[in-house]
Amino acid sequence: MTHSLEDINAKVKAIAARNPVYTEISQWVGDLLSTTVEASKNFGPSDLKLDVDPLPEAWYQGKSLLNPEELSLDWEKISALYERLVELVKKREDGHRQAEGLLKAIEEKRNGAPVVMKAVLTSNFEAIEASAKALNVDSPVLALLLRLSLRPSLLIIAQAVLKHLDLSRWHHGHCPVCGSAPGLSDLSGEGGKRRLHCSLCETVWSYPRLRCPFCENDNREELSYLRAKNEEYLRVDLCGRCNNHLKTLDLREISGPIILPLDDVATWHLDIIAGQNLEDKGNALS
Ligand SMILES: [Zn+2]
Ligand SMILES: [Zn+2]
Q1: Ligand 2 centroid vs 244 CA: distance in angstroms?
Q2: Of 170, 176, 193, 197, which Cα lies nearest the Cα of 3?
Q3: What is the pTM of this model?
Q4: Which ligand minimizes its atom distance to the CA of 68?
């Protein structure tokens, strides 16, 4: 979903008010995000050719409509946006040292596409981490910049595709558009219905609360959740079978919309808590 600069500013302020420890980082991510929103004007409508009438039978069986690895993207524009984002890294402490490595990260190309960008499209986090290590840059910063520079293209494509999909027919834990795993979930409405947000193209779809989207496990005894103190709006769902976790924002407690890159960063403490506790049982899921 695309968001306006006003939405982004409001979210940055709300995060700072709620959790002051994230004031600086959310302001910075907000600046990066605003740059990508402004740049998205240069990306134009998707020229993706879709064969979707009727929708392929495989989609109903759980095969996402697109394979992100096969998308033909405008690598020059994406790389130019990435370079603009690296300029914003220089404003941060230690930024000049990192900037050099970050620019090097996209130099290695295959068929015109930077290899690390392809790694983002295939959710190959190990490759991104290895690249960050080799170039002596922070892995989360590299991953964030790569993802944000791909974001305008991916969001335009997802919007074009979504017009053709009846999401009420999709009951899987991976994204109906691009097949990636969810990056966050939210609860809203009466009874708190759960929606998942794709970590790559940010498509949103409904999914049962009592099922793990990563392994589709719905055995309640293996599902649990944790909360941080004084944060009623936030929890992290844990699966004892596949050991994955997913952060959940309760939109009955705080106002939306979810802006994935910002809400993800502003909840990093939950990732840490989840990592420490996955071995433990957590609370029974409700
Ligand atoms: Zn997706
Ligand atoms: Zn699972």
Answers
A1: 6
A2: 197
A3: 0.94
A4: 1
Question: In the numeric block, which tokens belong to residue 150?
Answer: 């791909």
Triad 35, 39, 45: Cα angle to 5°: 145
**What count of Cα atoms within 13 Å lies in the side-chain half-sphere of residue 87?**
10
* DSSP-based helix, strand, coil % in the chain, nearest 5: 45, 15, 40
**Tens of pLDDT along 137-186?**
999 999 999 999 999 999 999 999 999 999 999 999 999 999 999 999 99
Cα of 81 vs centre of ligand 1, distance in Å, is 21
Amino acid at 97: R
Does 3.90.1670.10 match the CATH number of domain 168-284? Answer: yes
- Tell me how far apart the alpha carbons of residues 138 and 126 are, in angstroms, rounded to a whole number: 13
pLDDT, tens digit, 9 for 90 and up, residues 82-135: 999 999 999 888 888 899 999 999 999 999 999 999 999 999 999 999 999 999
Q: What is the CA radius of gyration of the chain?
A: 19
- Reply yes or no: is the peptide bond before residue 20 cis, omega within 30 of 0: no
β-bridge mates for residue 195, sequence order:
186, 206
CA–CA gap between residue 130 and residue 125 (Å, rounded)? 9
- Take residue 156 and report the two structure tokens written for it: 């335009």
Which residues are placed with Cβ below 5 angstroms of ligand 2, an ion? 212, 214-215, 217, 239, 241-242
Compare 49 and 39 and report the one with higher pLDDT: 39
Q: How far apart are CA 261 and CA 33, in angstroms?
A: 8
Domain boundaries, the chain: 5-164, 168-284
**Which pair of tokens denotes residue 17?**
């008010």
